[in-house]
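User: For documentation purposes, I need each entry recorded in a consistent format: the amino acid sequence on its own, followed directly by the corresponding structure tokens. There are two entries in this batch. Please keep commentary to a minimum and don't merge the entries.

Assistant: Recorded as requested. Entry 1:
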Amino acid sequence: MKILDEIHVMGRSSLNGSVSIQGSKNAALPMMAASLMHKGLSVLRGCPRISDVFCMEEILKDLGAVTWWEGHDLYLDCTEADGIQIPAAYTGRMRSSVILLAPVLSRNHSCRIGYPGGCVIGKRPIDLHLMALRHLGAEIEEQEAYLSAYCGKFMGKEIVFPHSSVGATQQAVLAAVCACGETHVYGCAREPEVVWLCRYLETMGAKIQGVGTEHLYIQGVRELGPGKFQIPPDRIVAGTYLCAAAAARSRITLENVPVGELESFLEVYRKMGGQYEGKSGTLRINGERVCSPVPLVETGIYPGFPTDLQAPLMAVLAGIHGVSRIREKIFDDRFGSALQMRKMGAHIEITGNTAVICGTDTLKGCTTEAGDLRGGAALIIAALGAKGETCIRGTEFISRGYEHICEDLEALGCRIWQSSGKGNERI
């Protein structure tokens, strides 16, 4: 049996100090895909060194790209990236790999890609991705384990999404920027990750109007130039560390924070009793007075409460006396971490898409298992508020999105370490 690396946390330590927020995973991955559309060198500065980024890098190299790192700057030379096959060995590890369809088709006219996988957090169909590509002229055959697609040239057209989808919006944009003619996309997602992709493409020469709205107008161009861009800070990582301060009832300072992208989360933070002061990307957080339950939090599309912070919030609420409720409106099965928190003594009942949390201050450390990226981070947060030592297994999920969560929390005063799974020795 494979022995997984483990994270160990000694709970109820006070946090103090300052950490800087890493570059955004969800912004970096589609930008890496977009870099395929220039037959030359592009650079993404401040790129997070996490397993999902490394996986996307391996896919690009398999397609023929040459890549290298200088610190946190990722260089992508796609001069000879003429490959058309993306094996299931890659796509099964990372769902966002489906975003490569449009760039590969736009550049190389054909693509064979394994069905995307990643974290198991409910049904996340790719039908809107395929609808957008077909509208613009792609022929796509869905086989048992693969998608086979062909497109001689994308042709501008009107696309109407029946509901918001970040990935499908990004897919449509990537297909449209070098399409022949004009493309109107309605019902677009407005998440910051869509905006940042558009901004990156604009630096490459794309012509996009309506960025940040539900209607994008794109005038196709013949070709894109080199990309050079600073990856924005990760709003989900920032929200995770805010939850850590709340669970530990502590004061910390976060640097390089996209404060404007966190308004819905900060509103809930205030309702719990949390205090903060933000200025020029610096967020001073006071979680000492976090003590109030929240009657109802509903996840939603941006600018609503982000689903990626639902599990970390639940971990905080599990340690607050009173009844709180979370309604998950994005995914249909994203309460997996609640089962693990119950092992620690949390009182959480799940009915359909609603979790009822009866908070307690008697959480106790135990051995838990991460089943997805944000759920794994939530278990670390729950451990901060628990008595004794908590062991979190399945750390490969956490490394998909957090570059140095253990180092950051240790710098803030948390007693946290990683082990090989064979004992409690530090590694």
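Entry 2:
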Amino acid sequence: MFRLFNTLLGVVKAKMMALWTKIRLWTSRSYWETKGVNTFRQFFSRLLNVKPRSQSDYYPVLRWLVSKRLAFALVIVLGLLSVFYILFFSPVSAMLSASSPSLPSFRYNALPLKFYSGNVQITAADGHVAYEGTVGGGVAQGQGVLYRADGSVVYSGAFENSKYNGSGSLFYQDGVLRYEGEFEDNLFNGQGSLYRQSGVLEYQGGFLRGLKSGAGTLYNSGGNAIFAGNFLSDRPLFSELLGKTTAEAASMYTGGTTVYNASGENSVSLDEIGVVYTANDGSNSLDAEWTIGEIVVEESSFPTTDALLTGINELTAYFGEPVYFGYTWPTLSEAVAIRRLSEAGSGGFPDIEMEMTAGFDDVYSVTSYDKNYELYIYVYQADGLLYTFYCDSSTSDFSFYSVSLSGEESSAQAADSASSAASQEGGEE
């Protein structure tokens, strides 16, 4: 009895497995695709393999006879291709599934897009709407909006050859405005406003190839204007401060300042832009008649029209051979810059000894500082200015630099001290 039951169970299982195999086969996409292709192929094979038997099986076309079966096959093929085009490529059908039904929609790589001009919607490979706006010859031309996969706006404005060209707005990932103004080939170029990710204005003015350039105004993290002047390669053109009175400098820079005085040496730190300048007139008071003779910039790169220079070899290629290189001792402004860089953990210099007492708010009387502190410098001369670059050794890149008016006593102070140091330390001229 038990053996009979197992036999019956085996027969049932075999029947069920066969049925299950058929169900899986019938529900398989690949099965129906293969079956469809085979059926299609067999149909055309039978259609085309039957030889016409009489003249009635042909269509006369000019001086030729065309098989009716062949003509029938061609009509079917053209019909299928037309349906395929309507379903997958035509803007008319694509509009049916588009989120913006008023616009014809194309996939980014659709062939018809290359021949279309006008307002469209373009979907990316993952299916999200990537662009809405005008196109011409397959590229974005005119006004449009570029979207991220999450639907947020990347850019809204003018396009030319699928690049940002003209007036537009660029946005951070979270939708906060990043830049508003003029573009050229995807870069900020012309007049514009740059914003921090917090939404606070950072800079307003001219741009060139993506960098701050020309007249502009710099703002701090609180949105307050701190510097108004010319910019070059994303940096204020600090050399413009040379020769100006302290009152004129105060009209350009309105951020926080710290004043240092040491036995006739007077330095003012423009705290929010990393600059220390030297101002002298031989008196003991700071007033509007004081003029700026040296500017120390707390930056390890030097801006030019084409690039930011960081290495001595790059500087020599740009300026020519230095007028001096060797060891020197710091001026008060240079000592202040070293101290600020050391406190910030940058610059590569050890902290400099400096004794000072506080007077009024942000005013210090420096009683002494280490005037034997050694600095290795490279001095270049160009366009009536002296450019001094400060290194911690003869083989390192510079950590900061200064600019002074060539030929004036106050401006030549660095070069004079350099010569004195060279005579005592064996430096080379």
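Summary note for entry 2:
The CA atoms of residues 121 and 250 lie 52 Å apart.
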